[in-house]
Design brief:
GO terms for molecular function: glycosyltransferase activity. Keywords: Transferase. By secondary structure, this protein is an alpha/beta fold. Helix content is about 35%, strand content about 20%. The chain is built from 12 helices and 15 strands. Strand 4 and strand 5 form a beta hairpin. Helix 6 (about 195-205) packs across helix 10 (about 310-325). The longest helix has 18 residues, at about 325-340. The protein is elongated, with a radius of gyration of 22 Å.
Length: about 350
């Protein structure tokens, strides 16, 4: 099997992508390089050479028409590569088109969510027509989820060019907990658009209808931290609301999550969905939560839970989940199994390897 020199272009290199890139880079026959925006270098994670199976290189860009940019010395950047994988962000459209119109070019793929996600995953006619056209002109699109892939295959002229590498993160494997579940959990940054105050309000509403040992627990920090604490005080429930601060070590997170009934994020369902599933904790979010596709790993009452976005429905969902823990253990088992058998980083990396080597 011939080798492949592969270049993946990103804005920055976040820590959660390194395990995936390492798995791709250690594959026999693949020489992987990750390119990042030099102007955003401070956003990169710690890239210690001894701990990675890929090279890194910076590119410089120039702004075009406010929202778009071109890459300086694009020809030099991509020279010698067999496969070039661009971020599917349409801000990359100028270098993508420049490469696609070359007479002799490497294989070119686009990788990403595939649809607009700023206000919840949705189709946008103009942007999507451009994405579908780029799919047909390039060697294909690599999408985060099967849900979006199904949309693409109905819209593009060349559905055989639509691929899926389910978005994932590396989570240390712990045993599926059989301990008593006493926590309603929320993990991640306390951003305003997550509507985390809704969770405090609902907990105050249901506190007299659930067992006395049930607590509301937050792991994380951010702009709404003080608001959440103040709200707990105002509702006179602070004795049953815990703030654990930011945690990044899986062992520390598992020490809390092993006793969690459910992990809740009202309006955002990103990689935290996979993190919870990997630790055997079902995820509860709204049906129109902002997502990169991770939300579609949730099948209601099978691998997680949805509510309709209204506080009243969140209230009813939590009461049912907390008071029917036998059924919740079934959902937890399904979520845990889905991650470890189908949605782990090894599966994600394998999807890339299969595409690269075809």
């Amino acid at each position: 099997m011939p080798g492949r020199k592969v270049l993946i272009l990103q804005n920055i290199i976040p820590h959660y992508r390194v395990p995936v890139f390492n798995l791709i880079g250690k594959e026999l026959g693949i020489n992987l390089t990750i390119a990042y925006d030099k102007g955003l270098e401070k956003g990169n994670c710690n890239l210690m050479a001894a701990q990675r199976n890929f090279s890194v290189i910076a590119y410089e860009k120039r702004t075009l028409f406010t929202s778009f940019f071109r890459i300086t010395d694009l020809n030099k950047l991509i020279n010698g590569y067999d496969v070039v994988i661009f971020s599917g962000d349409l801000h990359f459209i100028a270098p993508i088109v420049a490469l696609l119109t070359r007479r002799r070019r490497p294989k070119v793929y686009l990788w990403g969510i595939g649809l607009s996600s700023a206000k919840g995953l949705r189709e946008k006619p103009l942007g999507d027509r451009i994405r579908y056209l780029l799919n047909d002109l390039s060697d294909g699109t690599i999408l985060y989820s099967s849900y979006v892939a199904d949309i693409y295959r109905k819209r593009v002229f060349k559905p055989g060019k639509v691929f899926v590498a389910h978005n994932s993160i590396l989570v240390r494997k712990f045993p599926l907990s059989q301990e008593k579940k006493t926590k309603i959990l929320s993990i991640g940054t306390f951003k305003k658009n997550k509507r985390l105050p809704d969770l405090v309000i609902v907990f105050a509403k249901i506190i007299d209808r659930i067992p006395e040992d049930i607590t509301l627990d937050f792991i994380g920090d951010g702009e709404d931290a003080n608001l959440l604490r103040q709200l707990a005080d105002q509702k006179k429930i602070s004795g049953r609301v815990n703030f654990w601060g930011r945690m990044e070590d899986d062992e520390e997170i598992y020490a809390i999550m092993k006793n969690a009934i459910v992990s809740v994020s009202p309006t955002q369902a990103g990689l935290s969905v996979l993190h919870a599933m990997a630790m055997g904790c079902p995820f509860l979010t709204s049906v129109d939560a902002i997502t990169g596709g991770e939300r579609f790993n949730i099948k209601d009452n099978e691998t997680g839970y949805y509510y309709n976005g209204q506080i009243s429905d969140l209230e009813q969902k939590l009461i049912k989940i907390v008071n029917d823990q036998e059924d919740n253990r079934r959902v937890a088992y399904n979520a845990y199994t889905l991650y470890h058998e189908e949605r782990n980083v090894e599966q994600m990396a394998k999807s890339f390897v299969d595409i690269i080597m075809q």
